[in-house]
Protein backbone atom coordinates (compact mmCIF):
# COMPACT_ATOMS: atom_id res chain seq x y z
CA UNK A 1 0.00 0.00 0.00
CA UNK A 2 1.11 3.58 -0.53
CA UNK A 3 1.37 4.15 3.21
CA UNK A 4 3.74 1.19 3.56
CA UNK A 5 5.80 2.27 0.57
CA UNK A 6 6.35 5.65 2.23
CA UNK A 7 7.31 3.93 5.47
CA UNK A 8 9.77 1.62 3.73
CA UNK A 9 11.39 4.58 1.98
CA UNK A 10 11.92 6.32 5.31
CA UNK A 11 13.22 3.16 6.98
CA UNK A 12 15.72 2.60 4.16
CA UNK A 13 16.82 6.24 4.00
CA UNK A 14 20.47 6.68 4.89
CA UNK A 15 21.79 8.93 7.61
CA UNK A 16 22.76 11.72 5.25
CA UNK A 17 19.56 11.25 3.25
CA UNK A 18 17.57 12.06 6.37
CA UNK A 19 19.72 15.14 7.01
CA UNK A 20 18.89 16.42 3.53
CA UNK A 21 15.26 16.90 4.55
CA UNK A 22 16.04 18.63 7.83
CA UNK A 23 15.99 22.25 6.59
CA UNK A 24 12.41 21.87 5.40
CA UNK A 25 11.38 20.33 8.72
CA UNK A 26 13.10 23.07 10.69
CA UNK A 27 11.32 25.76 8.69
CA UNK A 28 7.97 24.01 9.23
CA UNK A 29 8.55 23.70 12.99
CA UNK A 30 9.53 27.36 13.26
CA UNK A 31 6.43 28.30 11.27
CA UNK A 32 4.20 26.42 13.73
CA UNK A 33 5.95 28.06 16.68
CA UNK A 34 5.62 31.51 15.09
CA UNK A 35 1.93 30.98 14.43
CA UNK A 36 1.37 29.75 18.00
CA UNK A 37 3.03 32.71 19.76
CA UNK A 38 5.10 35.27 17.86
CA UNK A 39 6.27 37.19 20.93
CA UNK A 40 7.55 34.19 22.86
CA UNK A 41 9.14 32.66 19.77
CA UNK A 42 11.01 35.92 19.19
CA UNK A 43 12.12 36.07 22.84
CA UNK A 44 13.36 32.47 22.81
CA UNK A 45 15.22 32.94 19.53
CA UNK A 46 16.82 36.26 20.48
CA UNK A 47 17.71 35.20 24.02
CA UNK A 48 19.17 31.86 22.94
CA UNK A 49 21.38 33.41 20.27
CA UNK A 50 22.36 36.27 22.56
CA UNK A 51 23.36 33.74 25.22
CA UNK A 52 25.67 32.14 22.68
CA UNK A 53 27.21 35.53 21.95
CA UNK A 54 27.64 36.18 25.70
CA UNK A 55 29.40 32.83 26.05
CA UNK A 56 31.79 33.96 23.35
CA UNK A 57 32.43 37.25 25.12
CA UNK A 58 33.01 35.32 28.33
CA UNK A 59 35.60 33.12 26.64
CA UNK A 60 37.43 36.09 25.12
CA UNK A 61 37.33 37.93 28.44
CA UNK A 62 38.73 34.89 30.22
CA UNK A 63 41.57 34.70 27.74
CA UNK A 64 42.38 38.39 28.26
CA UNK A 65 42.33 37.95 32.03
CA UNK A 66 44.76 35.04 31.84
CA UNK A 67 47.05 36.82 29.39
CA UNK A 68 47.20 39.83 31.71
CA UNK A 69 47.82 37.74 34.81
CA UNK A 70 50.56 35.62 33.25
CA UNK A 71 52.35 38.54 31.62
CA UNK A 72 55.67 39.85 32.94
CA UNK A 73 55.76 42.63 35.54
CA UNK A 74 54.73 43.36 39.11
CA UNK A 75 51.62 41.58 40.38
CA UNK A 76 49.60 44.77 41.15
CA UNK A 77 50.19 45.97 37.58
CA UNK A 78 49.07 42.64 36.15
CA UNK A 79 45.92 42.64 38.31
CA UNK A 80 45.08 46.22 37.27
CA UNK A 81 45.60 45.22 33.62
CA UNK A 82 43.19 42.30 34.07
CA UNK A 83 40.44 44.38 35.73
CA UNK A 84 38.71 45.56 32.48
CA UNK A 85 38.56 41.98 31.22
CA UNK A 86 37.28 40.80 34.61
CA UNK A 87 34.51 43.42 34.45
CA UNK A 88 33.59 42.30 30.95
CA UNK A 89 33.53 38.67 32.13
CA UNK A 90 31.23 39.59 35.04
CA UNK A 91 28.86 41.50 32.76
CA UNK A 92 28.80 38.68 30.20
CA UNK A 93 28.09 36.13 32.94
CA UNK A 94 25.30 38.25 34.44
CA UNK A 95 23.71 38.96 31.07
CA UNK A 96 23.89 35.29 30.11
CA UNK A 97 22.16 34.37 33.37
CA UNK A 98 19.40 36.91 32.72
CA UNK A 99 18.95 35.61 29.17
CA UNK A 100 18.63 32.09 30.56
CA UNK A 101 15.82 33.25 32.85
CA UNK A 102 14.08 35.00 29.94
CA UNK A 103 14.41 31.91 27.76
CA UNK A 104 12.99 29.66 30.46
CA UNK A 105 10.06 32.01 31.10
CA UNK A 106 9.24 32.28 27.40
CA UNK A 107 9.56 28.52 26.84
CA UNK A 108 7.18 27.78 29.71
CA UNK A 109 4.49 29.77 27.90
CA UNK A 110 5.46 28.77 24.37
CA UNK A 111 5.55 24.99 24.87
CA UNK A 112 1.84 24.42 25.65
CA UNK A 113 0.79 26.77 22.85
CA UNK A 114 2.95 24.99 20.27
CA UNK A 115 1.80 21.56 21.48
CA UNK A 116 -1.83 22.66 21.27
CA UNK A 117 -1.45 24.05 17.77
CA UNK A 118 0.42 21.01 16.47
CA UNK A 119 -2.00 18.56 18.07
CA UNK A 120 -5.06 20.46 16.88
CA UNK A 121 -3.71 20.48 13.34
CA UNK A 122 -3.36 16.70 13.59
CA UNK A 123 -6.93 16.29 14.83
CA UNK A 124 -8.24 18.70 12.20
CA UNK A 125 -6.93 16.19 9.67
CA UNK A 126 -8.02 12.96 11.39
CA UNK A 127 -11.57 14.25 11.85
CA UNK A 128 -11.83 15.38 8.21
CA UNK A 129 -10.45 12.40 6.26
CA UNK A 130 -12.91 10.08 4.57
CA UNK A 131 -13.96 6.88 6.31
CA UNK A 132 -12.06 4.68 3.85
CA UNK A 133 -8.79 5.97 5.35
CA UNK A 134 -9.62 4.09 8.56
CA UNK A 135 -10.12 0.87 6.60
CA UNK A 136 -6.32 0.56 6.30
CA UNK A 137 -4.22 -0.51 9.27
CA UNK A 138 -1.24 1.37 7.84
CA UNK A 139 -3.21 4.60 8.30
CA UNK A 140 -3.56 3.83 12.01
CA UNK A 141 0.17 3.04 12.25
CA UNK A 142 1.07 6.35 10.63
CA UNK A 143 -1.37 8.21 12.86
CA UNK A 144 0.23 6.65 15.96
CA UNK A 145 3.67 7.86 14.90
CA UNK A 146 2.29 11.29 13.98
CA UNK A 147 0.92 11.65 17.52
CA UNK A 148 4.46 11.29 18.84
CA UNK A 149 5.71 13.71 16.20
CA UNK A 150 3.36 16.48 17.30
CA UNK A 151 5.11 16.49 20.69
CA UNK A 152 8.49 16.97 18.99
CA UNK A 153 7.72 20.37 17.48
CA UNK A 154 8.80 22.47 20.47
CA UNK A 155 11.82 20.22 21.11
CA UNK A 156 12.91 20.69 17.51
CA UNK A 157 12.50 24.47 17.75
CA UNK A 158 14.51 24.64 20.95
CA UNK A 159 17.13 22.26 19.60
CA UNK A 160 17.61 24.34 16.46
CA UNK A 161 18.01 27.55 18.45
CA UNK A 162 20.47 25.91 20.84
CA UNK A 163 22.36 24.54 17.86
CA UNK A 164 22.62 28.04 16.38
CA UNK A 165 23.85 29.36 19.73
CA UNK A 166 26.42 26.59 19.82
CA UNK A 167 27.56 27.42 16.32
CA UNK A 168 28.07 31.06 17.38
CA UNK A 169 30.22 29.92 20.30
CA UNK A 170 32.07 27.48 18.10
CA UNK A 171 32.93 30.17 15.58
CA UNK A 172 34.44 32.34 18.31
CA UNK A 173 36.33 29.44 19.82
CA UNK A 174 37.57 28.45 16.38
CA UNK A 175 39.10 31.87 15.91
CA UNK A 176 40.74 31.67 19.33
CA UNK A 177 42.20 28.21 18.68
CA UNK A 178 43.40 29.08 15.18
CA UNK A 179 45.20 32.12 16.57
CA UNK A 180 47.12 29.82 18.94
CA UNK A 181 47.85 27.22 16.25
CA UNK A 182 45.79 25.88 13.28
CA UNK A 183 46.77 22.27 13.97
CA UNK A 184 44.87 22.39 17.28
CA UNK A 185 41.60 22.99 15.45
CA UNK A 186 42.18 20.03 13.15
CA UNK A 187 43.02 17.83 16.13
CA UNK A 188 39.89 18.95 17.99
CA UNK A 189 37.69 18.17 14.99
CA UNK A 190 39.24 14.70 14.76
CA UNK A 191 38.64 14.18 18.48
CA UNK A 192 34.98 15.19 18.30
CA UNK A 193 33.83 13.78 14.95
CA UNK A 194 33.86 10.03 15.84
CA UNK A 195 31.76 10.52 18.96
CA UNK A 196 29.33 12.80 17.13
CA UNK A 197 28.93 10.44 14.19
CA UNK A 198 28.43 7.49 16.54
CA UNK A 199 25.66 9.36 18.38
CA UNK A 200 23.92 10.27 15.13
CA UNK A 201 24.25 6.74 13.80
CA UNK A 202 22.85 5.27 17.00
CA UNK A 203 19.95 7.71 16.87
CA UNK A 204 19.17 6.71 13.31
CA UNK A 205 19.20 3.02 14.20
CA UNK A 206 16.90 3.73 17.16
CA UNK A 207 14.45 5.63 15.01
CA UNK A 208 14.50 2.94 12.33
CA UNK A 209 13.52 0.39 14.99
CA UNK A 210 10.81 2.79 16.21
CA UNK A 211 9.29 2.93 12.72
CA UNK A 212 9.34 -0.84 12.27
CA UNK A 213 7.64 -1.36 15.66
CA UNK A 214 4.54 0.75 14.91
CA UNK A 215 2.09 -2.14 14.57
CA UNK A 216 3.54 -3.89 17.63
CA UNK A 217 3.15 -0.77 19.79
CA UNK A 218 -0.44 -0.34 18.63
CA UNK A 219 -1.17 -3.99 19.43
CA UNK A 220 0.26 -3.53 22.91
CA UNK A 221 -1.93 -0.46 23.38
CA UNK A 222 -4.99 -2.57 22.51
CA UNK A 223 -3.93 -5.30 24.95
CA UNK A 224 -3.40 -2.70 27.69
CA UNK A 225 -6.97 -1.53 27.22
CA UNK A 226 -8.37 -5.08 27.17
CA UNK A 227 -6.72 -5.90 30.49
CA UNK A 228 -7.36 -2.63 32.31
CA UNK A 229 -10.69 -1.16 31.16
CA UNK A 230 -14.19 -1.70 32.43
CA UNK A 231 -15.71 -2.42 29.00
CA UNK A 232 -13.85 -5.72 28.61
CA UNK A 233 -13.69 -6.68 32.30
CA UNK A 234 -16.92 -8.71 32.39
CA UNK A 235 -16.20 -10.96 29.41
CA UNK A 236 -12.56 -11.36 30.42
CA UNK A 237 -13.74 -12.88 33.70
CA UNK A 238 -16.82 -14.76 32.51
CA UNK A 239 -14.86 -16.62 29.80
CA UNK A 240 -11.70 -17.02 31.87
CA UNK A 241 -9.66 -15.02 29.37
CA UNK A 242 -7.06 -13.74 31.83
CA UNK A 243 -4.45 -16.34 30.91
CA UNK A 244 -5.22 -16.01 27.21
CA UNK A 245 -4.81 -12.22 27.13
CA UNK A 246 -1.72 -12.33 29.35
CA UNK A 247 -0.27 -14.90 26.97
CA UNK A 248 -0.86 -12.57 24.04
CA UNK A 249 0.79 -9.78 26.01
CA UNK A 250 3.81 -12.00 26.74
CA UNK A 251 4.18 -12.87 23.05
CA UNK A 252 3.88 -9.32 21.74
CA UNK A 253 5.85 -7.72 24.56
CA UNK A 254 8.44 -10.48 24.36
CA UNK A 255 9.00 -9.72 20.70
CA UNK A 256 9.20 -6.01 21.44
CA UNK A 257 11.62 -6.58 24.32
CA UNK A 258 13.86 -8.73 22.11
CA UNK A 259 13.96 -5.95 19.51
CA UNK A 260 14.78 -3.35 22.15
CA UNK A 261 17.52 -5.53 23.66
CA UNK A 262 19.11 -5.99 20.25
CA UNK A 263 18.83 -2.24 19.70
CA UNK A 264 20.46 -1.53 23.08
CA UNK A 265 23.40 -3.81 22.24
CA UNK A 266 23.87 -2.21 18.85
CA UNK A 267 23.63 1.34 20.22
CA UNK A 268 26.02 0.56 23.06
CA UNK A 269 28.56 -0.88 20.65
CA UNK A 270 28.29 2.09 18.30
CA UNK A 271 28.50 4.81 20.97
CA UNK A 272 31.23 3.01 22.91
CA UNK A 273 33.39 2.69 19.81
CA UNK A 274 32.88 6.37 19.04
CA UNK A 275 33.72 7.35 22.64
CA UNK A 276 36.94 5.29 22.64
CA UNK A 277 38.13 6.81 19.37
CA UNK A 278 37.24 10.33 20.51
CA UNK A 279 38.96 9.74 23.87
CA UNK A 280 42.17 8.65 22.21
CA UNK A 281 41.98 11.60 19.85
CA UNK A 282 41.38 13.98 22.77
CA UNK A 283 44.50 12.70 24.46
CA UNK A 284 46.30 13.39 21.21
CA UNK A 285 45.09 17.00 21.36
CA UNK A 286 46.86 17.55 24.66
CA UNK A 287 49.95 15.73 23.41
CA UNK A 288 49.98 18.06 20.43
CA UNK A 289 49.51 21.03 22.73
CA UNK A 290 52.45 19.88 24.86
CA UNK A 291 54.66 19.38 21.81
CA UNK A 292 53.82 22.84 20.52
CA UNK A 293 54.63 24.35 23.92
CA UNK A 294 57.90 22.45 24.27
CA UNK A 295 58.99 23.40 20.75
CA UNK A 296 58.26 27.04 21.40
CA UNK A 297 55.55 27.23 18.76
CA UNK A 298 53.25 28.88 21.31
CA UNK A 299 54.31 31.96 23.31
CA UNK A 300 54.82 31.37 27.02
CA UNK A 301 52.33 34.13 27.90
CA UNK A 302 49.64 32.24 26.00
CA UNK A 303 50.40 28.90 27.63
CA UNK A 304 47.61 29.16 30.19
CA UNK A 305 45.10 30.40 27.66
CA UNK A 306 45.87 27.41 25.44
CA UNK A 307 44.35 25.02 27.96
CA UNK A 308 41.28 27.26 28.43
CA UNK A 309 40.81 27.66 24.68
CA UNK A 310 41.20 23.95 24.02
CA UNK A 311 38.70 23.05 26.76
CA UNK A 312 36.27 25.70 25.52
CA UNK A 313 36.64 24.40 21.98
CA UNK A 314 35.90 20.86 23.14
CA UNK A 315 32.82 22.07 25.02
CA UNK A 316 31.61 24.04 21.98
CA UNK A 317 32.14 21.09 19.64
CA UNK A 318 30.42 18.76 22.10
CA UNK A 319 27.47 21.17 22.39
CA UNK A 320 27.13 21.45 18.63
CA UNK A 321 27.34 17.66 18.29
CA UNK A 322 24.77 17.10 21.04
CA UNK A 323 22.36 19.66 19.63
CA UNK A 324 22.80 18.26 16.13
CA UNK A 325 21.93 14.81 17.45
CA UNK A 326 18.91 16.27 19.25
CA UNK A 327 17.71 18.11 16.15
CA UNK A 328 18.23 14.96 14.13
CA UNK A 329 16.20 12.81 16.56
CA UNK A 330 13.37 15.31 17.03
CA UNK A 331 13.38 16.07 13.33
CA UNK A 332 12.78 12.43 12.45
CA UNK A 333 9.77 12.25 14.77
CA UNK A 334 8.47 15.58 13.48
CA UNK A 335 8.94 14.27 9.95
CA UNK A 336 6.39 11.53 10.74
CA UNK A 337 3.93 14.24 11.76
CA UNK A 338 4.51 16.31 8.62
CA UNK A 339 4.52 13.27 6.34
CA UNK A 340 1.25 12.00 7.82
CA UNK A 341 -0.45 15.33 7.18
CA UNK A 342 0.85 15.35 3.60
CA UNK A 343 -0.26 11.79 2.85
CA UNK A 344 -3.59 12.18 4.63
CA UNK A 345 -4.37 15.00 2.22
CA UNK A 346 -5.20 12.35 -0.38
CA UNK A 347 -8.10 11.26 1.83
CA UNK A 348 -9.53 14.71 2.46
CA UNK A 349 -12.78 15.58 0.66
CA UNK A 350 -12.19 17.57 -2.49
CA UNK A 351 -12.82 21.27 -2.24
CA UNK A 352 -14.67 22.71 -5.26
CA UNK A 353 -13.16 25.74 -6.96
CA UNK A 354 -16.43 27.62 -6.65
CA UNK A 355 -18.85 27.55 -3.73
CA UNK A 356 -21.52 24.95 -4.63
CA UNK A 357 -25.21 25.73 -4.16
CA UNK A 358 -27.13 24.73 -1.06
CA UNK A 359 -29.65 21.92 -1.65
CA UNK A 360 -33.34 22.49 -1.26
CA UNK A 361 -35.78 20.08 0.42
CA UNK A 362 -35.55 16.55 -0.91
CA UNK A 363 -37.85 15.81 -3.82
CA UNK A 364 -36.15 12.78 -5.28
CA UNK A 365 -33.08 10.70 -4.43
CA UNK A 366 -31.58 8.66 -7.26
CA UNK A 367 -28.96 5.95 -6.86
CA UNK A 368 -27.50 5.09 -10.27
CA UNK A 369 -25.13 2.18 -10.94
CA UNK A 370 -23.69 2.44 -7.43
CA UNK A 371 -20.78 0.24 -6.36
CA UNK A 372 -18.26 0.10 -3.53
CA UNK A 373 -15.10 -1.97 -3.17
CA UNK A 374 -13.23 -2.23 0.14
CA UNK A 375 -9.45 -2.22 -0.39
CA UNK A 376 -8.86 -5.56 1.36
CA UNK A 377 -11.63 -7.54 -0.35
CA UNK A 378 -11.68 -9.22 -3.73
CA UNK A 379 -15.43 -8.90 -4.29
CA UNK A 380 -17.32 -5.60 -4.13
CA UNK A 381 -19.51 -4.88 -1.09
CA UNK A 382 -22.06 -3.16 -3.34
CA UNK A 383 -22.34 -3.66 -7.09
CA UNK A 384 -24.43 -1.88 -9.74
CA UNK A 385 -27.36 -0.76 -7.55
CA UNK A 386 -29.92 1.58 -9.11
CA UNK A 387 -32.98 2.85 -7.22
CA UNK A 388 -35.09 5.99 -7.04
CA UNK A 389 -36.64 7.19 -3.78
CA UNK A 390 -39.24 9.95 -3.78
CA UNK A 391 -39.88 12.48 -1.04
CA UNK A 392 -42.07 11.24 1.78
CA UNK A 393 -41.45 7.57 1.08
CA UNK A 394 -40.42 5.05 3.71
CA UNK A 395 -38.27 2.40 2.09
CA UNK A 396 -36.60 -0.63 3.63
CA UNK A 397 -33.30 -2.33 2.81
CA UNK A 398 -33.39 -5.98 3.83
CA UNK A 399 -31.16 -8.97 3.29
CA UNK A 400 -28.84 -11.34 5.07
CA UNK A 401 -25.70 -10.25 6.91
CA UNK A 402 -23.02 -8.95 4.57
CA UNK A 403 -25.43 -8.28 1.73
CA UNK A 404 -24.26 -4.64 1.43
CA UNK A 405 -27.16 -2.83 3.12
CA UNK A 406 -25.11 -0.77 5.56
CA UNK A 407 -22.47 0.09 2.96
CA UNK A 408 -25.16 1.29 0.55
CA UNK A 409 -26.74 3.39 3.31
CA UNK A 410 -23.34 4.86 4.22
CA UNK A 411 -22.85 6.02 0.62
CA UNK A 412 -26.32 7.54 0.48
CA UNK A 413 -25.54 9.37 3.75
CA UNK A 414 -22.33 10.75 2.24
CA UNK A 415 -20.10 8.86 4.70
CA UNK A 416 -18.40 6.90 1.91
CA UNK A 417 -17.62 7.85 -1.67
CA UNK A 418 -18.85 5.32 -4.25
CA UNK A 419 -16.24 3.37 -6.20
CA UNK A 420 -18.60 3.44 -9.21
CA UNK A 421 -21.85 5.17 -10.07
CA UNK A 422 -23.39 8.28 -8.53
CA UNK A 423 -26.04 9.52 -6.12
CA UNK A 424 -28.33 12.37 -7.19
CA UNK A 425 -30.18 14.71 -4.81
CA UNK A 426 -33.01 16.38 -6.74
CA UNK A 427 -31.31 15.43 -9.99
CA UNK A 428 -27.90 16.87 -9.09
CA UNK A 429 -24.92 14.73 -7.96
CA UNK A 430 -24.28 14.91 -4.23
CA UNK A 431 -20.77 16.21 -4.88
CA UNK A 432 -22.31 19.21 -6.66
CA UNK A 433 -24.09 20.44 -3.53
CA UNK A 434 -22.65 22.23 -0.53
CA UNK A 435 -21.48 19.30 1.64
CA UNK A 436 -22.33 20.86 5.01
CA UNK A 437 -25.78 22.01 3.90
CA UNK A 438 -26.52 18.62 2.37
CA UNK A 439 -25.39 16.86 5.55
CA UNK A 440 -27.77 19.02 7.58
CA UNK A 441 -30.68 17.55 5.59
CA UNK A 442 -29.67 13.96 6.39
CA UNK A 443 -29.82 12.23 9.75
CA UNK A 444 -28.21 8.85 10.38
CA UNK A 445 -28.72 6.30 13.16
CA UNK A 446 -25.85 3.83 12.87
CA UNK A 447 -25.93 0.19 13.82
CA UNK A 448 -22.44 0.48 15.37
CA UNK A 449 -23.12 3.61 17.38
CA UNK A 450 -20.59 5.14 19.75
CA UNK A 451 -21.29 5.51 23.45
CA UNK A 452 -20.35 9.15 23.89
CA UNK A 453 -19.20 9.94 27.47
CA UNK A 454 -21.49 12.95 27.88
CA UNK A 455 -24.79 13.62 29.61
CA UNK A 456 -28.01 12.12 28.28
CA UNK A 457 -29.13 15.56 27.09
CA UNK A 458 -25.86 16.20 25.24
CA UNK A 459 -25.94 12.73 23.68
CA UNK A 460 -29.27 13.53 22.06
CA UNK A 461 -28.43 17.18 21.31
CA UNK A 462 -25.44 15.99 19.24
CA UNK A 463 -27.96 15.09 16.55
CA UNK A 464 -28.19 18.81 15.74
CA UNK A 465 -25.14 20.23 17.47
CA UNK A 466 -25.08 23.44 15.41
CA UNK A 467 -28.32 24.72 16.94
CA UNK A 468 -28.68 26.05 20.51
CA UNK A 469 -29.44 23.44 23.17
CA UNK A 470 -33.24 23.26 23.50
CA UNK A 471 -34.47 20.97 26.27
CA UNK A 472 -38.01 20.85 24.85
CA UNK A 473 -36.72 19.60 21.46
CA UNK A 474 -34.44 17.10 23.17
CA UNK A 475 -37.27 15.68 25.26
CA UNK A 476 -39.56 15.50 22.22
CA UNK A 477 -36.93 13.55 20.25
CA UNK A 478 -36.35 11.26 23.25
CA UNK A 479 -40.09 10.59 23.47
CA UNK A 480 -40.21 9.50 19.82
CA UNK A 481 -37.37 7.07 20.56
CA UNK A 482 -39.03 5.69 23.74
CA UNK A 483 -36.13 7.15 25.75
CA UNK A 484 -37.83 9.95 27.72
CA UNK A 485 -39.18 7.91 30.64
CA UNK A 486 -36.00 5.87 30.82
CA UNK A 487 -33.88 9.04 31.07
CA UNK A 488 -36.09 10.50 33.80
CA UNK A 489 -35.39 7.39 35.89
CA UNK A 490 -31.64 8.09 35.84
CA UNK A 491 -30.19 9.69 39.03
CA UNK A 492 -29.91 13.16 37.46
CA UNK A 493 -32.35 12.78 34.61
CA UNK A 494 -31.16 14.39 31.40
CA UNK A 495 -28.09 15.73 33.22
CA UNK A 496 -26.81 12.25 34.08
CA UNK A 497 -23.33 11.51 32.77
CA UNK A 498 -23.41 8.32 30.69
CA UNK A 499 -19.96 7.03 31.61
CA UNK A 500 -19.37 4.93 34.73
CA UNK A 501 -15.62 5.65 34.75
CA UNK A 502 -16.33 9.17 36.08
CA UNK A 503 -17.90 10.26 39.36
CA UNK A 504 -21.72 10.05 39.35
CA UNK A 505 -21.60 8.46 35.90
CA UNK A 506 -24.09 5.74 34.94
CA UNK A 507 -24.07 2.68 32.71
CA UNK A 508 -26.82 1.99 30.19
CA UNK A 509 -27.86 -1.32 28.70
CA UNK A 510 -27.56 -1.94 24.97
CA UNK A 511 -31.25 -1.25 24.45
CA UNK A 512 -31.10 1.96 26.46
CA UNK A 513 -28.16 3.19 24.41
CA UNK A 514 -30.08 2.32 21.26
CA UNK A 515 -32.95 4.57 22.40
CA UNK A 516 -30.52 7.42 23.05
CA UNK A 517 -29.05 6.96 19.57
CA UNK A 518 -32.48 6.89 17.95
CA UNK A 519 -33.40 10.08 19.82
CA UNK A 520 -30.30 11.71 18.36
CA UNK A 521 -31.54 10.76 14.88
CA UNK A 522 -35.06 12.11 15.47
CA UNK A 523 -33.84 15.44 16.87
CA UNK A 524 -32.95 16.92 13.51
CA UNK A 525 -36.26 16.00 11.79
CA UNK A 526 -34.20 15.79 8.60
CA UNK A 527 -35.48 15.44 5.05
CA UNK A 528 -33.82 12.01 4.93
CA UNK A 529 -33.53 9.76 7.98
CA UNK A 530 -31.41 6.61 7.64
CA UNK A 531 -31.88 4.07 10.44
CA UNK A 532 -29.59 1.04 10.45
CA UNK A 533 -30.90 -1.68 12.78
CA UNK A 534 -32.45 0.82 15.23
CA UNK A 535 -34.34 -1.78 17.29
CA UNK A 536 -32.06 -4.83 17.50
CA UNK A 537 -31.71 -4.47 21.31
CA UNK A 538 -35.12 -2.95 22.13
CA UNK A 539 -37.86 -4.60 24.14
CA UNK A 540 -41.23 -5.08 22.34
CA UNK A 541 -42.85 -2.00 23.89
CA UNK A 542 -39.95 0.32 23.04
CA UNK A 543 -39.72 -1.17 19.58
CA UNK A 544 -43.41 -0.51 18.93
CA UNK A 545 -43.03 3.12 20.08
CA UNK A 546 -40.00 3.61 17.84
CA UNK A 547 -41.67 2.25 14.71
CA UNK A 548 -44.81 4.27 15.34
CA UNK A 549 -42.56 7.34 15.21
CA UNK A 550 -41.00 6.09 11.98
CA UNK A 551 -44.42 5.50 10.43
CA UNK A 552 -45.38 9.01 11.53
CA UNK A 553 -42.81 10.37 9.06
CA UNK A 554 -44.48 8.61 6.11
CA UNK A 555 -45.76 11.06 3.54
CA UNK A 556 -43.98 13.93 5.28
CA UNK A 557 -40.30 12.98 5.43
CA UNK A 558 -38.20 10.33 3.68
CA UNK A 559 -36.91 7.36 5.67
CA UNK A 560 -34.53 4.54 4.74
CA UNK A 561 -34.88 1.68 7.19
CA UNK A 562 -32.46 -1.23 7.53
CA UNK A 563 -33.61 -4.07 9.75
CA UNK A 564 -33.64 -7.85 10.04
CA UNK A 565 -37.02 -7.78 11.80
CA UNK A 566 -39.14 -8.02 8.69
CA UNK A 567 -42.41 -7.52 10.56
CA UNK A 568 -41.35 -3.89 10.98
CA UNK A 569 -41.10 -3.24 7.22
CA UNK A 570 -44.52 -4.48 6.10
CA UNK A 571 -45.80 -0.87 6.13
CA UNK A 572 -42.91 0.45 4.02
CA UNK A 573 -43.83 2.02 0.70
CA UNK A 574 -41.19 -0.14 -0.99
CA UNK A 575 -38.79 -2.86 0.09
CA UNK A 576 -35.41 -3.43 -1.56
CA UNK A 577 -33.87 -6.87 -1.10
CA UNK A 578 -30.06 -7.06 -1.20
CA UNK A 579 -27.99 -10.20 -1.77
CA UNK A 580 -24.20 -10.33 -2.11
CA UNK A 581 -24.03 -6.61 -2.84
CA UNK A 582 -26.71 -6.60 -5.53
CA UNK A 583 -30.33 -5.49 -5.58
CA UNK A 584 -32.27 -8.68 -6.34
CA UNK A 585 -35.89 -7.79 -5.50
CA UNK A 586 -38.02 -4.68 -5.17
CA UNK A 587 -41.66 -4.07 -4.29
CA UNK A 588 -44.22 -3.73 -1.51
CA UNK A 589 -44.55 -6.40 1.16
CA UNK A 590 -47.57 -7.90 -0.58
CA UNK A 591 -45.87 -7.92 -3.99
CA UNK A 592 -42.74 -9.59 -2.67
CA UNK A 593 -44.69 -12.24 -0.74
CA UNK A 594 -46.69 -13.07 -3.84
CA UNK A 595 -43.51 -13.24 -5.90
CA UNK A 596 -42.27 -16.12 -3.71
CA UNK A 597 -38.62 -15.07 -3.91
CA UNK A 598 -35.88 -14.43 -1.37
CA UNK A 599 -37.93 -11.95 0.67
CA UNK A 600 -40.81 -14.42 1.00
CA UNK A 601 -38.36 -17.10 2.17
CA UNK A 602 -36.78 -14.84 4.81
CA UNK A 603 -40.16 -13.56 6.02
CA UNK A 604 -41.57 -17.07 6.35
CA UNK A 605 -38.53 -18.27 8.31
CA UNK A 606 -38.86 -15.38 10.73
CA UNK A 607 -42.65 -15.65 11.02
CA UNK A 608 -42.36 -19.35 11.90
CA UNK A 609 -40.36 -18.43 14.96
CA UNK A 610 -43.34 -16.53 16.40
CA UNK A 611 -45.81 -19.42 15.99
CA UNK A 612 -46.50 -22.05 18.67
CA UNK A 613 -44.87 -25.43 17.92
CA UNK A 614 -48.19 -27.05 16.95
CA UNK A 615 -49.10 -24.20 14.64
CA UNK A 616 -45.67 -24.28 13.08
CA UNK A 617 -46.03 -28.02 12.48
CA UNK A 618 -49.48 -27.60 10.88
CA UNK A 619 -48.11 -24.79 8.69
CA UNK A 620 -45.32 -27.10 7.58
TrEMBL record:
InterPro entries: AAA+_ATPase, ABC1_TM_dom, ABC1_TM_sf, ABC_transporter-like_ATP-bd, P-loop_NTPase, Type_1_exporter. It is found in: Cell membrane. GO terms for molecular function: ATP binding. Residues 365-605 form the ABC transporter domain. Keywords: ATP-binding, Membrane, Nucleotide-binding, Transmembrane, Transmembrane helix. The keyword RNA-binding does not apply. It comes from the Bacteria. The chain crosses the membrane at residues 41-61, 81-107, 153-177, 273-294. It is a multi-pass membrane protein. Residues 43-323 form the ABC transmembrane type-1 domain. PANTHER family: ATP-BINDING CASSETTE SUB-FAMILY B, HAEMOLYSIN SECRETION ATP-BINDING PROTEIN. This is ABC transporter ATP-binding protein. It comes from Actinoplanes sandaracinus. The lineage of its organism: Bacteria, Bacillati, Actinomycetota, Actinomycetes, Micromonosporales.
Amino acid sequence: MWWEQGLRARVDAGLFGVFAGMPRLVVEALRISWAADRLRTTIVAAATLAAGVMATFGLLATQRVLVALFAAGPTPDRVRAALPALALLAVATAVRGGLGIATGYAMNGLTPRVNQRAERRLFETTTAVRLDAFDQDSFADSMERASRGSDSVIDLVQGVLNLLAGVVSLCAVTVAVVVIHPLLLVALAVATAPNGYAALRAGHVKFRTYLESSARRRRLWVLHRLMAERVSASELRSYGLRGFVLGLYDRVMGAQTAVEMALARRMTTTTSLGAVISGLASAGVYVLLGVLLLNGRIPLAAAATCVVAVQAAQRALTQVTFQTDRVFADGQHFNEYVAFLDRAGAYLPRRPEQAPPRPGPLRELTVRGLGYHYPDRETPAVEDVTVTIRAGETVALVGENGSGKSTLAAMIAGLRDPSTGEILWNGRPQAGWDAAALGARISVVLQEHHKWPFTAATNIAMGDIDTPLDRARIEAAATLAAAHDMILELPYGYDTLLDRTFADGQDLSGGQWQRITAGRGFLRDADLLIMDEPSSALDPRAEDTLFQAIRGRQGRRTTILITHRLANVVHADRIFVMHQGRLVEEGTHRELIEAGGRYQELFSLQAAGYQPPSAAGEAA
